[in-house]
Amino acid sequence: MAYETTGEATTVEVAGGDAQTSEGRAAGHEALEKGAGAELTRERVLAVCQSNWEYRGIDDASMREMLEELTTHLDEAAAAGRTPQDVVGPDAKAFAAAWARARTPLLQRVLRMAALIPFVLGSLLLLTHVFDRSTSLAIEAPRVAFYVALAAAIVAWEMRRGSLGFRGWTVAGLVALPVAVITALLIGDEPLFHLPLWGTLLFLAPGLPYTVVDIRARNNAPGKG
């Protein structure tokens, strides 16, 4: 991992050249001047990168791997008498963003959401099966409207913010509930069809691999036994 300033542009190399971005030399000098009184520390670089990657929706397993790799480079730089700024350059956020774009292209992020949204909906349906103690659920128009609005809110939040989190779930729920209530008032709550338990389980299937990977990453995170 290296940070080089040439006569024309500033180039960030991540993990042996996996990602490269260029910025104007003037912008690099401006960032250096702004950060002159607040030198980047190892802890701050890691915190900035982790926050940026969470914002951009990097999955937990990839984030853990990236943080471990970055930590290794920072430690090696410190042992050689170099500063964290020598590794990531004057703008840690730009460095993190460049690595994130290279690590998780838009298509991969869209595919992840396309798998996890049915998983979330399937989880809600499965809970309803359990609470109702039934192998078949009556699906009414308000329920359909709720799930559609919830999925739309999740996608919009993910695309804009990059990471859902508790706040994102709260916003999605607040958006979906009024939609369900209005649908019930306009259309009613007569069952449209019945969903068997095996149909609910099919909703869970696409998101299971992502969920397993994320759980393992959390369990293997530093500070957990």
Quote the beta fraction.
Answer: 5-15%
Q: Please state how the strands of the largest beta sheet are arranged side by side.
A: 1-2-3
Number of strands: 5
Radius of gyration (CA) equals 23 Å
How does the major sheet shape up? 3 strands, antiparallel
Structural class: mainly alpha
Summary of the model, kept short:
The chain has 225 residues and is mainly α. The chain has helices at 25-34, 42-55, 60-79, 84-88, 92-103, 106-132, 141-161, 165-187, 197-204, 208-219; strands spanning 2-5, 9-13, 22-24, 136-140, 191-196.
Features:
225 residues; mainly alpha; 2 domains; 3-stranded antiparallel beta sheet; two-stranded antiparallel ribbon; elongated; disordered C terminus; transmembrane
Describe the structure.
The chain crosses the membrane at residues 110-131, 137-157, 169-187, 193-213. The chain has 225 residues and is mainly α. It folds into two domains: 2-103, no CATH class; 106-219, no CATH class. Helix content is 68%, strand content 10%. The protein contains ten helices and five strands; from the N terminus they run E-E-E-H-H-H-H-H-H-E-H-H-E-H-H. The chain has helices at 25-34, 42-55, 60-79, 84-88, 92-103, 106-132, 141-161, 165-187, 197-204, 208-219, and strands at residues 2-5, 9-13, 22-24, 136-140, 191-196. The chain has a three-stranded antiparallel β-sheet. It has a two-stranded antiparallel sheet with strand order 4-5. Strand 1 (2-5) and strand 2 (9-13) form a beta hairpin. Helix 2 (42-55) crosses helix 5 (92-103). The model is unreliable at 1-37 and 221-225 (pLDDT under 50).
